Amino acid sequence: MAGFALLAVAVLSTGCAAQTDPDDAASTGSAPASASTTASAPAGSSDPAGSSSSAATATEEAEGTPFPGDTQADVADAVDPDGLTVTAVRAASHDGFDRVVFELSGSGTPGWRVEYVDAPTAQGSGAAIDVPGAAYLAVSLQGTSYPYDSGAEEVARGAVPVSGTDVVQGVFYDATFEGVSAAVIGTADQAPFRVYSLTGPSRVVVEVATAG
């Protein structure tokens, strides 16, 4: 009996190994996750509500598997948003994809709609947005708050510094208007992409494939 108990403990310890948080990971092709981080399923999956992203814990993908995304619009509903203001936007290159992360204050998860558009325009005014790239991913985060309501400092409207990426050519943050925080990701072409959310802190992650 003692030998069986020791074996059971060893198996449980192996299964509880922590996974890697996407913002801290080195350039790898694995899906980001951590033991304390909840993420929505990669774009391309479906749920009863018709969203291309359903709540699930992100699991590490096998090396060499095809990028789990496509070029179709990715939509998800907000979940208990409270004081969500975009406080940071960053982009980085990884093995097989470029990643753009939108970090938010507050709690809950914003909704989103991410899709390719012909010509990016500013919300509210409709003015043209100038961002490098031959294709444009419009990002709309729903359920967000103005900084004077949340008490958080919002990212300044304008171009976000981007360097060292491949398919992502530029990012423009368009600020918040009537509960929607918008941005445009300029890409080299209409490459497949996926979107998912993380908590602790709240983040929305957009990954764009750099290889077929």
Compile the SSE list and pairings:
Elements: H1 2-15, E1 39-40, E2 55-56, E3 74-76, E4 79-82, E5 86-94, E6 97-104, E7 107-109, E8 111-117, E9 135-142, H2 147-150, E10 158-160, E11 168-177, E12 180-187, E13 193-198, E14 202-209
Antiparallel strand pairs: 1-2, 3-8, 4-7, 5-6, 6-14, 8-9, 9-12, 10-11, 11-12, 13-14
Summarize the structure.
The chain is mainly beta and 212 residues long.
Mean pLDDT: 78
Overall geometric form: globular
- Count of DSSP E strands? 14
CATH architecture: Sandwich
**Main sheet specs:** 6 strands, antiparallel
Trace the largest sheet across and list its strands. Answer: 3-8-9-12-11-10
Query: Tell me, what is the CATH class?
Result: Mainly Beta
> Can you tell me the CATH topology?
Immunoglobulin-like
Radius of gyration: 18 Å
Query: Helix proportion of residues, in percent?
Result: under 10%
Q: Helix- and strand-based class? A: mainly beta
- How many domains comprise the coordinates? 1
